[in-house]
Write a sequence for this structure.
């Protein structure tokens, strides 16, 4: 027995020794994890005046979302960190976004872009690229490489390979090619080695953001589609062929190579961005990117200088310990207020790090259903806004790292920045005021008690409504002397495990103000999928149930803007078919001139791309109208923080300027 | 015995099919429309009519318009795939297609399963290697200082949630002592190959394995101790000692064999658990394992992936039960089944 026990202890010790010995110290291909050994003195103990210690020209990036290993241009899945990797490895695009999120022509790629309006109302864009662009392996980039991406994303083959894309619908001949009705994509033409054209359908024009139509990325054709694969154009539009045979280009024929490129199983996949994916460990979910020496620069000609970027997962529970011990040294976009405060504590007390803060391009919101129940009345929506102290809410939820917006925009939008004064003068901020809430409810006719008498200040308020207004809310209404009385009781759908829901419940639903105002909000907690079903009122008979009956008057959601393309077209449509399909999920039918529908459509579909002034005017009117009707109540807009090592210089991140873009300008002067 | 095994295998088939029907029905009862979910990110790029057309196309493609019984038939492999004559369901070895990962479930599950297996093999071997001798020693020296100390330590491991001492161990061993990394599965940026890669991986797995082993000490060592205490008080043990049989033989040959019967279920259960993931440890230590994958699937309504994982564990459990029953017979011939 003693022998066995002793043996076991020895085994444990050996395991420990082996483990310690395996710490990277030798080997031919290894790269140490940190700049200092694990047992080194922490950065805090280093006096500030100590000369800068040489460090590796490397960043270890802690990502809050896990790598999935799908680097397929967001055509399949769309994980945030995967998308970041493909953006870093495939940045060349004739159009790109600048530091403010606005679409700009990328002169590094595009030599010339011309547009021609056709007789049928369609518009043809002819793009000529520079002839000095090469892939990471040195192969030249030609027009075919850009066309290959667009052609594939619009093909039936892509659909058979589970690609999710709808942009083919924007172009002439795209749908026919996608449906397999046409052998060629007639709107996509190869002009010469460095020039191609693409024709946008008439019904998609005029469009304020028409530059987005020419977006394309270069794909290395033979790597993506196998040996002999090519893009051809016989005069009727582009098509794929393998060894000249169009029929040979099938899903089965290209599946293996496409999937290999999608997952970048081989680091030799030629790419065209500032970095190459050197390795991706699908077991550890860790990616290593190294500089692409053949990269010609971004739209400003900027090239990266940081040699290596390693992407690892940062866990919510242990990220602070991991960053303290050097497991990673870059923590991007910290969203949670408590985490931000922890990060700042580390920066202040332990040193070795700096941070950059920026506004979130998005917000959290309470969305109202405006076609039934109490929330169909604008006074009720206003009253809810007055009853919630949104400044306190934002402060509590964001731990001081957030602010309040008063409409559907982000602080970082150029539209907002250019309209700051106008909006400050004209928007109603709905400042916390229970008195105002009572006043607007009185004005809105919510002056009765359940028995039809005057509301005396206690219990629920009621309002006399018509049978039409009571529709879908009959079960809650009461009949008194032939009058239909609707109670001021609102059903609220909230998603489970949601801190925002908890805070709304505490600060609004369970507060004394709401009771004093004669209002009641009933919370129902559900998973997010069910919440969306209720929101869109989907008929899911056969797959879970029928949600078509309006049930909940308010939902709490979050909304993000990826760039400054502000397109709210069809959000307010009155077309019953479109509404049934989930458009206009507020069910607010503000139709006619000057209404939300008119303004949102005219903003993007009625303005020439060069007429920014008109666009901005309509945008301002739209925001004002939205603020007046209040189909939603913005709750908070976070301030985000990114933490990076203090030896990294010139790192400037923004709401629309992410890590993949900002890192090109950053450097490590003390790098070995 | 052969007849018994054949009968049990037949039961396994029946139970598997019944479970598959129940699981498939349950996952289909979950609210949500997979076609709508898949199309949701593309909504803003489409006109309403285009959206509707694509939505209907997708529903058709995913077979959502078919009756649930037909969908079950295709999934399990009783019916050919939609629009083809290929029989390619669960029974034919096709675990399904993950709508979230856009890949075959087999591909999606491969890496997490490997990690989970590696992690659990070490955990199980170490836990059993420690707990069985420890339980025996404690039983033999019942009431002694060693026994009392072990009881206190194991009760801690047994009663404190794994999450708590995972964080505690991280703080002590990774942050203060810096013996182990905080989390992850390999040295960031390393390109180790062969043995060096394996050792690197083991270095990163050390701390989670220690936590897992510590968490497992309490239960198993107490089972063994209790079983051995009972066995040591049996008449046959007293007789053996009276006959002058050596104490080692009394303990390991007589008492241990008698003690084995009640704990054989636990031991086999431990070995079967090598396939199961640990959500808590995988999250704290950033390990790519089955627990994390399953939760990811559930959170994203990836029903085919969840079903694939669920059915895999169903098979493991059914086979495990059979092995346990057969093991009783091997350990104790009195309960051996011959029919």
């Amino acid at each position: 027995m003693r022998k066995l026990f002793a043996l076991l202890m020895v085994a444990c010790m050996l395991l420990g020794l082996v483990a310690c010995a395996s710490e990277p110290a030798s080997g031919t291909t290894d790269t140490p994890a940190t700049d200092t050994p694990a047992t080194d003195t922490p950065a805090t103990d280093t006096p500030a005046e100590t000369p800068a210690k040489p460090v590796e020209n490397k960043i270890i990036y802690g990502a809050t979302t896990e790598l999935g290993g799908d680097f397929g241009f967001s055509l399949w899945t769309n994980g945030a960190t995967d998308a970041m990797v493909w953006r870093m490895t495939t940045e060349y695009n004739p159009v790109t976004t600048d530091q403010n999120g606005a679409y700009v022509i990328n002169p590094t790629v595009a030599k010339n872009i011309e547009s021609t309006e056709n007789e049928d109302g369609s518009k043809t864009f002819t793009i000529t690229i520079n002839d000095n662009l090469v892939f990471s392996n040195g192969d030249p980039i030609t027009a075919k490489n850009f066309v290959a991406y667009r052609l594939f994303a619009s093909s039936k083959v892509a659909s058979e390979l589970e690609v999710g894309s709808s942009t083919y619908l924007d172009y002439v001949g795209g749908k026919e090619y996608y449906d397999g009705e046409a052998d060629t994509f007639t709107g996509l033409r190869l002009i010469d080695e460095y020039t191609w054209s693409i024709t946008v359908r008439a019904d998609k024009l005029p469009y304020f953001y028409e530059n987005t139509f020419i977006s394309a990325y270069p794909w290395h054709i033979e790597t993506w589609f196998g040996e002999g694969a090519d893009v051809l154009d016989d005069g009727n539009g582009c098509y794929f062929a393998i060894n000249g045979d169009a029929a040979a280009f099938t899903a089965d024929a290209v599946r293996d190579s496409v999937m290999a490129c999608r997952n970048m199983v081989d680091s030799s996949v030629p790419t065209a961005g500032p970095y190459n994916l050197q390795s991706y460990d699908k077991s550890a979910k860790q990616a290593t990117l190294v500089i692409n020496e053949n990269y010609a620069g971004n739209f400003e000609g900027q090239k990266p200088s940081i040699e290596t970027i390693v992407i690892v997962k940062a866990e919510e529970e242990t990220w602070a310990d991991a960053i303290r011990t050097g497991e990673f040294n870059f923590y991007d976009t910290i969203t949670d207020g408590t985490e931000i405060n922890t990060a700042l504590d580390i920066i202040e007390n332990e040193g070795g790090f700096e941070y950059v803060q920026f506004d979130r391009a998005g917000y959290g919101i309470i969305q109202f259903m405006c076609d039934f129940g109490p929330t169909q009345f604008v006074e009720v929506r206003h009253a809810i806004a007055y009853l919630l102290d949104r400044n306190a809410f934002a402060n509590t939820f964001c731990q001081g790292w957030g602010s309040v917006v008063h409409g559907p925009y982000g602080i970082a939008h150029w539209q907002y920045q250019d309209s700051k004064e106008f909006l400050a003068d004209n928007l109603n901020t709905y400042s916390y005021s229970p008195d105002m809430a009572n006043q607007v409810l009185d004005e809105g006719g919510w002056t009765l008690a359940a028995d039809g008498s005057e509301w005396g200040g206690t219990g629920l308020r009621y309002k006399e409504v018509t049978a039409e207004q009571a529709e879908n809310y009959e079960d809650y209404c009461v009949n008194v002397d032939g009058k239909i009385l609707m109670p001021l009781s609102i059903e609220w759908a909230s998603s489970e495990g949601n801190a925002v829901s908890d805070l709304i419940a505490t600060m609004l639903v369970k507060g004394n103000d709401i009771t004093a105002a004669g209002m009641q909000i009933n919370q129902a907690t559900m998973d997010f999928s069910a919440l969306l079903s209720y929101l869109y009122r989907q008929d899911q008979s056969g797959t879970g149930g029928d949600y078509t009956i309006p049930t909940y008057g308010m939902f709490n959601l979050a909304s993000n803007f990826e760039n400054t393309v502000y397109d709210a077209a069809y959000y307010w449509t009155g077309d019953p078919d479109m509404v049934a399909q989930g458009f206009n999920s507020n069910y607010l039918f503000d139709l006619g001139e000057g209404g939300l529908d008119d303004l949102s459509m005219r903003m993007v579909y009625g303005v020439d791309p060069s007429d920014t002034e008109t666009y901005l005017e309509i945008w301002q009117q739209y925001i004002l109208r939205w603020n007046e009707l209040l189909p939603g109540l913005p709750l908070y807009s976070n301030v985000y923080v990114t933490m990076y090592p203090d030896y990294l210089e010139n790192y400037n991140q923004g709401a629309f300027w992410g890590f993949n873009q900002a890192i090109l300008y950053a450097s490590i002067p003390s790098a070995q | 015995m052969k007849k018994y095994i054949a009968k049990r295998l037949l039961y396994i088939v029946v139970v598997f099919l019944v479970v598959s029907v129940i699981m498939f029905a349950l996952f289909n009862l979950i609210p949500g429309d997979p076609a709508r979910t898949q199309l949701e990110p593309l909504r803003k790029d489409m006109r309403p009519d285009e959206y509707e057309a694509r939505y209907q196309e997708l529903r058709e493609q995913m077979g959502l318009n078919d009756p649930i019984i037909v969908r079950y038939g295709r999934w399990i492999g009783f019916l050919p795939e939609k629009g083809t004559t290929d029989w390619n369901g669960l029974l034919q070895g096709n675990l399904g297609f993950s709508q979230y990962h856009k890949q075959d479930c087999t591909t999606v599950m491969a890496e997490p399963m490997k990690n989970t297996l590696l992690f659990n093999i070490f955990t199980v071997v170490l836990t059993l290697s420690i707990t069985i001798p420890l339980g025996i020693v404690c039983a033999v020296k019942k009431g002694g200082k060693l026994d009392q100390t072990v009881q206190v330590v194991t009760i801690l491991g047994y009663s404190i949630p794994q999450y708590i001492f995972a964080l505690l161990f991280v703080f002590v061993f990774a942050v203060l002592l810096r013996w182990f990394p905080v989390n992850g599965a390999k040295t960031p940026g390393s390109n180790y190959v062969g043995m060096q890669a394996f050792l690197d991986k083991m270095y990163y797995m050390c701390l989670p394995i220690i936590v897992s082993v510590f968490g497992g000490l309490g239960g198993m060592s107490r089972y063994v101790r209790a079983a051995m205490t009972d066995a040591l008080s049996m008449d046959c043990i007293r007789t053996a000692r009276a006959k002058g049989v050596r104490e080692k033989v009394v303990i390991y040959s007589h008492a241990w064999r008698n003690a084995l019967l009640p704990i054989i279920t636990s031991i086999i259960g431990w070995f079967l658990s090598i396939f199961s993931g640990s959500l808590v440890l995988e999250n704290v230590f950033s390990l790519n394992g089955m627990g994390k994958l399953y939760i990811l699937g559930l959170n994203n309504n990836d029903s085919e992936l969840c079903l694939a994982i669920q059915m895999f564990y169903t098979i493991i459990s059914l086979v495990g039960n059979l092995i346990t029953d057969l093991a009783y017979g091997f350990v104790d011939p009195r309960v051996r089944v011959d029919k």
